[in-house]
C-alpha cells in the first residue's frame, strides 16, 4: 500500500473548510514558515479511500476477539462518542471565561467524585495524558512529599519483577533508583525479599493488584504496611483495576496514589497513540503536590505553592473524561461491580476451557486475565509463543500478549474482558484446540503463519536492524 505522500499530486486539493466569517489576522514573521510544509495534495475522494483502506488493514475490537493481556481491549459503547460529540463539550476552549463552561467544570467534578469513590482516594487530577504519564506524575508526587519533609535520602522505588515495563521506566524518569524484587512461586510478591529491600532509602513501592499474572495478592495489606513502616509510600498501577472496580478499593489496600487508565477500565478509546488519560488520584497527604490546571480555577499557584506544576496543558484531554463520565453514568453504582465480576468470570471460563491442553502458569482461579506457557510445546514441537500468536491471526482473532510477563517462559497472557459473549469464548477455545492439534501433526506449518492477513510474516530481524523510519520526499511527485 502506498503512503499518502506517494499518492499526492501537485495541483490537486479539496475545499473542506467553510469561508472565514471573521477578518483575516496576519501573523508576525517569526513563527511563519520560510518553506511551505511538505503536505500531500489529494482530492477528497482519494483521501477518503486512503483512510478506508488503512482501516481495513488494522484489527480492532470491532473486527473480532481481541484478548490482549493487561490491555483490556473491550468494546467502547457508541453512546460515549455521541456524548463527547455534543457541541457544549466539543466546541469549548480552555481559555474561555469560567462562567461560560460551568457545565464542563461540573462534569470534571462529577467524574472526579466517582473515581475517588471507586479508588478510595481523596483527590483526583486529569492532566496526565496516558497511563505511563500518570505513573510519572504519581512518582513526582512521592518525590515532592519526601522533599517537603526534608527526607531526601529516600531515593529508591521498589518494583516487582512481574511489573509492567513502564513502572521501572517511570521511576527512573522521576529520578529514582529502581530496586527489583523477585516474585514467589505463587506469582505474588515475595515478602521476605520485600522486607530485605525496604529501608531508610525507600521512597515507595509500585504494584499492580491483581498483578500481571492475573492473581490478587492475598498479602496486599501486609505488603503496603511493610512499606509504610519503612517510611515509604505505595503506588497503585491501575492497569488491572478492571478486575476489581466497585468491589475492592486501592485506597483501602493501603495505597497512597493511583493512576487510572481510562481506556482500560472506563471504556474510552485505546490505541493509535492517543489521546488518552492517565488520571491520578491520591490521599490527602499528597494532594498539595498535585499538578495545577493552569486555568486559575483551582486557586492558582499562589494557593498551591507545593504543586509539582503542570504535567500537561490545562485539564488534559477533556473529551476522554467526558466519555468516561458517560460510561459511569450509564452503568450506575450498582453495575460497576458487575463489570468487574463479568471480567473475572470470562477469564476463568476461558482458562478452564483450555486448561487440559494449555495449563495456566499458576494454579487456582485467576482474576481478569491468566498466563499460560508454551515452553513445552516449543521444546517438543518447535512451536514458539510467537509462532502460535501468528497462527491465531489466521483464526480470525487478535493474539494475546506474548513473552510477558518475563517470569513465565514462552508466555501468552490472555484477557477476554467482560464485553465478550460465551459464544466468542467457546470459539476462541476451539481455535486454541485446533492449533494444538496442528502443532502435533504439522508443527512446521506454524513458521509460515499468518497466511490470511493483509501482511504475511515479516522478517523480524530485518525490521529491528534495518527499520525504515523516514520517507524520501524526492520520490513523491
Short description:
Helix content is 38%, strand content 9%. It has 477 residues and is of the alpha/beta class.
Task: Characterize the structure shown.
The chain is globular, with a radius of gyration of 25 Å. With 477 residues, the protein is an alpha/beta fold. The chain contains 17 helices and 10 strands. It has helices at residues 4-7, 44-56, 78-84, 87-90, 102-119, 131-148, 166-173, 191-197, 220-229, 250-253, 262-265, 300-303, 318-354, 375-381, 385-393, 422-441, 460-465; strands spanning 123-125, 156-160, 177-181, 202-207, 233-237, 257-261, 278-282, 370-373, 401-402, 411-414. A 7-stranded mixed sheet has the order 1-7-6-5-4-2-3, with helices on both faces. It has a 3-stranded antiparallel sheet with strand order 8-10-9, with helices on one face. Helix 5 (102-119) packs parallel to helix 13 (318-354) and helix 6 packs across helix 7. It folds into 2 domains: 83-327, Aspartate Aminotransferase, domain 2, CATH 3.40.640.10; 335-464, Aspartate Aminotransferase, domain 1, CATH 3.90.1150.10.
Note the quaternary state here: single chain
Give the strand line-up of the largest sheet.
1-7-6-5-4-2-3
Q: What is the rounded Rg?
A: 25 Å
**Termini separation:** 17 Å
Average pLDDT figure: 93
**What is the total tally of β strands?**
10
Q: Largest beta sheet, briefly?
A: 7 strands, mixed
Count structural domains.
2
List unreliable stretches of 5+ residues: none
Percentage of β-strand residues:
5-15%
Proportion of residues in helical segments: 25-40%
CATH topology name of the largest domain, in short, is: Aspartate Aminotransferase, domain 2
- Structural class, please? alpha/beta
The sequence of SSEs as H and E is HHHHHEHEHEHEHEHEHEHHEHHEEHH
Superfamily at the CATH H level of the largest domain?
A: Type I PLP-dependent aspartate aminotransferase-like (Major domain)
The CATH architecture of the largest domain can be named as: 3-Layer(aba) Sandwich
Net shape: globular
| Number of distinct helices | 17
By CATH reckoning, the class of the largest domain would read: Alpha Beta
Amino acid at each position: 500500500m502506498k503512503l499518502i505522500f506517494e499518492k499526492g499530486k501537485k495541483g490537486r486539493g479539496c475545499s473542506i473548510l467553510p469561508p472565514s466569517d471573521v477578518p483575516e489576522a496576519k501573523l508576525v514573521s517569526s513563527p511563519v514558515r520560510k518553506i511551505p510544509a511538505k503536505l500531500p495534495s489529494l482530492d477528497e475522494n482519494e483521501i477518503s479511500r486512503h483512510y478506508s483502506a488503512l482501516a481495513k488493514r488494522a484489527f480492532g475490537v470491532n473486527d473480532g476477539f481481541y484478548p490482549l493481556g493487561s490491555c483490556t481491549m473491550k468494546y467502547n459503547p457508541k453512546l460515549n462518542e455521541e456524548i463527547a460529540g455534543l457541541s457544549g463539550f466539543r466546541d469549548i476552549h480552555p481559555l474561555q471565561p469560567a462562567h461560560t463552561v460551568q457545565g464542563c467544570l461540573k462534569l470534571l467534578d462529577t467524574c472526579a467524585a466517582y473515581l475517588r469513590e471507586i479508588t478510595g482516594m481523596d483527590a483526583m487530577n486529569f492532566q496526565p495524558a496516558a497511563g505511563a504519564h500518570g505513573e510519572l506524575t504519581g512518582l513526582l508526587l512521592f518525590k515532592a512529599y519526601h522533599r517537603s519533609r526534608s527526607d531526601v535520602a529516600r531515593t529508591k522505588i521498589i518494583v516487582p519483577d512481574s511489573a509492567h515495563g513502564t513502572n521501572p521506566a517511570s521511576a527512573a524518569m522521576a529520578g529514582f533508583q529502581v530496586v527489583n524484587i523477585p516474585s514467589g512461586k505463587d506469582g505474588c510478591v515475595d515478602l521476605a525479599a520485600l522486607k530485605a529491600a525496604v529501608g531508610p532509602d525507600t521512597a515507595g513501592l509500585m504494584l499492580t493488584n491483581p498483578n500481571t499474572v492475573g492473581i490478587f495478592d492475598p498479602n496486599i495489606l501486609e505488603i503496603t504496611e511493610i512499606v509504610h513502616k519503612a517510611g515509604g509510600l505505595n503506588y497503585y498501577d491501575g492497569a488491572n483495576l478492571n478486575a476489581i472496580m466497585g468491589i475492592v478499593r486501592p485506597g483501602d489496600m493501603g495505597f497512597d496514589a493511583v493512576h487510572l487508565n481510562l481506556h482500560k477500565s472506563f471504556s474510552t478509546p485505546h490505541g493509535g497513540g492517543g489521546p488518552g488519560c492517565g488520571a491520578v488520584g491520591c490521599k490527602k497527604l499528597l494532594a498539595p503536590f498535585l499538578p495545577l490546571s493552569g486555568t486559575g480555577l483551582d486557586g492558582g499557584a499562589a494557593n498551591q505553592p507545593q504543586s509539582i506544576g503542570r504535567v500537561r496543558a490545562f485539564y488534559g484531554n477533556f473529551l476522554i473524561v467526558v466519555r468516561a463520565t458517560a460510561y459511569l453514568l450509564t452503568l450506575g453504582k450498582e453495575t460497576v461491580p458487575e463489570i468487574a465480576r463479568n471480567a473475572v468470570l470470562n477469564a476463568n471460563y476461558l482458562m478452564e476451557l483450555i486448561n487440559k491442553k494449555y495449563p495456566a502458569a499458576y494454579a487456582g482461579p485467576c482474576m481478569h486475565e491468566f498466563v499460560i506457557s508454551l515452553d513445552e510445546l516449543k521444546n517438543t514441537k518447535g512451536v514458539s509463543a510467537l509462532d502460535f500468536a501468528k497462527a491465531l491471526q489466521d483464526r480470525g482473532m487478535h493474539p494475546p500478549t506474548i513473552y510477558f510477563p518475563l517470569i513465565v517462559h514462552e508466555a501468552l497472557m490472555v484477557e477476554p474482558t467482560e464485553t465478550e459473549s460465551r459464544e466468542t469464548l467457546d470459539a476462541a477455545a476451539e481455535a486454541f484446540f485446533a492449533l494444538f492439534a496442528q502443532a502435533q501433526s504439522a508443527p512446521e506449518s506454524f513458521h509460515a503463519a499468518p497466511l490470511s492477513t493483509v501482511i504475511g510474516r515479516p522478517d523480524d530481524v530485518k525490521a529491528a536492524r534495518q527499520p525504515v523510519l523516514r520517507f524520501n520526499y524526492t520520490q513523491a511527485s
